[in-house]
């Protein structure tokens, strides 16, 4: 066969064309090719919903598997061999393998929007709706389209679908990373906490500290007790609880240092200048309740010198100085018949000087993360960097109504090393994507790396709680009692939750759910909640003309303050101070029922006075909104929500979309409350009315019932006394006195530990 130059050129061109075509095919998304060849995708609503269901099945937490699972297990002949292998050997293997397979592994915040987990990943129909609306707005904005009708082409639908699948893929990758990261934290805790380590394990322990907790520096907080002029380092104690050293740096492994050197118990408050006034009030309340637990105020160099002096004064001044008429003159108008200086001893108050320490953590968070902790997450930093082992974490605006020692003495704390409180049982629901996300972070699957390391799986205690069964609010975090050493890994688990943007920040309110979530992520279900959910505390409505449901048998307590009552009917603490309305908006509210029936002078007096606590009403609990385990089929919960529309409307709903000309309802005479909590526009929306008898969600009974607690006269007197102290406690005046330290001769730091 003769090869002419022409034939050779033809063959070369043909081969080149085939090669280029092959390379082009390789560069095209194979999924797109399949779509072109088999273009049978449907875009009607039912088809989109079915596609959403398939995605929910794919991303369901039961399908999660640690990325290093197969690599780890293939090193062993069978599961039994893994179980018989020593923990040290398994730890070395899993961390060394991870280092090889993930050489660039490090903590990520996923802050840029293009990196984030997309919460519409399981709602294709919602994704389409939002994108179509964007296209429609763009079309209508174009002046050339004035006489044209907006239509959606198949190409438009395909483009939206492709964008949706890209989001789903990204979200799956983010979820896998986050779940793997939490799995690595669990392995870290199992392998290194509280164990004797050889040199190799110690090296891994230190190396992965930097990978898992890059936001923690080696710098220790700076401590300064009231009366001292110089800051000092972290206190190191001997077995007799004497301070033998002070450390200004943590050394190579801050995690190990913090775990081994947190000692004693006390109160921790995260404070900045913004919250200084409320903190002054809280300190004076603690003194009135004879608190003898030491207090640490944790801040980031963000309290002014003047406010530090005021906080010190609140902690150490004598009752004569605290209640000096010149100091409290702004608050003297509240209950003038109660003279605090003359009567405080009648309430059993001794006003002990408080063992107060300022803890400055300004250098403890590494520079790249310095602005990554929003206000609420400073509480988690405060808990970590407090030198206490056992902590009662107070929000600045809470008001305890019992001696704080009672939180440590409670049966819940003694049983578990925690004492948590439930939030209001509001009828606000969360979504599948949220509970499924958190479930993926829990050690819950039988086939898991956790099983080989004897890390406990979470069960009904977590999956059956209010949040995981579909309700938005479960924990109220104004007061948290927590044994850090007993639950150290659970504390650390809160940090990725605080630093990850989506889906965490839009799934929970601030830090409210982080405490039990962190523990469940650690495989630690040894935590306890107060028996009752939050109550509305204030005065029970007694006059029919002032009730929103005047003909209902339900009791009504309307208030801006949630309170927390134990199973014996004792009020333990309230939130949001003692003001009737912290927004002080009587002028805005004078036209709103029932205040529209008040004389203006009476309303002004009401708004300028403390709340009178005479009763606490705990509404009935809600049934599950979602079954445990985050079922992918969301139809049952949607049907449940649809059933609400067949119920009669509450006062917060009945005035929506009224026919033109119809007068709005101030109250409802024809039926009773449908929800246990009904939100009101009074006090800028902070006002809620609570009911203990509502139309049942079950067909088996007529009503669901809650609990009304009416406090006795002695308790009422105590509440009035505390409210007077709270209202006079925010004064920014103080006499020019020298703040003196404890002159008893006893080392205050030793006293602190013995407390």
TrEMBL record:
Q: Where is this region: Disordered?
A: 618-642, 736-755
Ranges of compositional bias, category Basic and acidic residues: 737-755
Q: What pathway annotation does it carry?
A: Protein modification; protein glycosylation
In terms of InterPro entries, this protein maps to: Alpha_mannosyltransferase, Nucleotide-diphossugar_trans
Membrane-related topology note? Single-pass type II membrane protein
**Gene Ontology biological-process annotations:** mannan biosynthetic process; protein O-linked glycosylation
Report a single Gene Ontology molecular function.
alpha-1,3-mannosyltransferase activity
What subcellular locations does the record give? Golgi apparatus membrane
Tell me the organism's taxonomic lineage. Answer: Eukaryota, Fungi, Dikarya, Ascomycota, Saccharomycotina
Task: Write down any Gene Ontology CC term.
Answer: Golgi membrane
Q: What is its main location?
A: Golgi
The protein's name is Alpha-1,3-mannosyltransferase, putative
Q: Which UniProt keywords apply?
A: Glycoprotein, Glycosyltransferase, Golgi apparatus, Membrane, Signal-anchor, Transferase, Transmembrane, Transmembrane helix
- Fetch the PANTHER family from UniProt: ALPHA-1,3-MANNOSYLTRANSFERASE MNN1-RELATED (PTHR31392)
